[in-house]
């Protein structure tokens, strides 16, 4: 991989932009049965939340992984980050009037929770060192 491509792949801004486009697009699709601008607003809200949560998820897992030992180091960080993400997503979508909240957040939560589990396992396997 070239140095330029490697730098782009490791960029938090690129990750946030990808999350915005992918999960915002999913939210528009999940709310497509409703008249505009509801699907578009849901997409903008989910896109922005996904970009922000993407930037904080890694740091949150690293922070939490230092707080737990033994088997809890494997399951506690992803559990707490999933609960926090769910709470934020449900609250903001409810406030913004997203019609299909459960459908809208299902894919972003599945992706972020999978990442959280895999990253937590990789940290716990190294003795809680990110």
**What is the beta-strand fraction?**
under 5%
Cα-to-Cα separation, first versus last residue = 24 Å
What is the makeup of the main sheet? none
Helices, by number, come to 5
Reading the helices and strands in chain order gives: HHHHH
Helix content: over 70%
Poorly predicted regions: none
Alpha carbon gyration radius: 16 Å
Structural class by sheet pairing and helices: mainly alpha
**What is the averaged pLDDT score?**
89
Strand tally: 0
Shape: globular
Number of domains: 1
Question: What is this structure's SSE topology?
Answer:
Elements: H1 3-9, H2 12-30, H3 38-65, H4 72-96, H5 101-125
Helix pairs in contact: 2-3, 2-5, 3-4, 3-5, 4-5
Could you please describe the fold and organization of this structure?
The chain has 130 residues and is mainly α. It has one domain. The chain has 5 helices and no strands. Helix 3 runs antiparallel to helix 4, helix 3 packs parallel to helix 5 and helix 4 packs antiparallel against helix 5. It is globular and about 50 Å long. 32% of the residues are buried. The mean pLDDT is 89.
